[in-house]
Amino acid sequence: MIKPPRIIEDIDWSALTHGGGAADPVTQASLTALTSGDRAAVDAALAHLADDVLHQGSLYPATVPAARYVAALLADPPSAAALPPRVRIRLLGWPAGVAEAVGGAAEEKIQVWFGYSAPERVPHFREVREIRPELYRAAEAQRNDTDPAVRRAALLAALHLLDDPALAAHREMLAPAVEAELGGGPEEWQRTLAARTLAVWRGEVATTVPDDDLWGGDHRADRGPVDDPPF
Q1: What is the rounded CA–CA span in Å between residue 22 and residue 19?
Q2: Which one of 2, 13, 66, 182 has the largest count of C-beta atoms within 10 Å of its C-beta?
Q3: Calpha distance 102→118 (Å, rounded)
């Protein structure tokens, strides 16, 4: 078992909650389990992150510190190297989901659905936006992984994190990889995502395709920028 980054020890998890209730002791134990090497414990930890800490794309008090820990884990070479590729892929997908929850498309949906500004009214929206540079550094650290599936997962995560205007300077550097690795790949939804993302970066359209079209949904790109509310 490797020694994970200290960030997990500096959080008062007993004061935090998530979609399943109190974060302590389950969330801290789950984050620690990620580096345990115990497949069942790791799978349970990954499920906890997806099902509770980012429940249905909602943000909670535990989301930000958990995301910062996952980012620290992926950005720390010894920690990341000790994780199997399938775990690194899952962990890269999770902060991508966190980034989606505060991206331009998500903000636009909230404005249309509820009539108010997400940064002003959605709890933890600003906090998550503030840590996007940390999450991006984690994705960037995995871009040179020896496993092509990990590199692709890192690239997909980076696309959502580069929605942050503060990270816009990285878009030009990443654009060739987006075009070649995703735009020229076998998956239609990834080609659609690549084309739409590059169009956003070039200023040709305002937002990326809605997240449910691109991450586990029906992958259709013809529904416009805003879907119906999730209820």
Answers
A1: 8
A2: 66
A3: 8
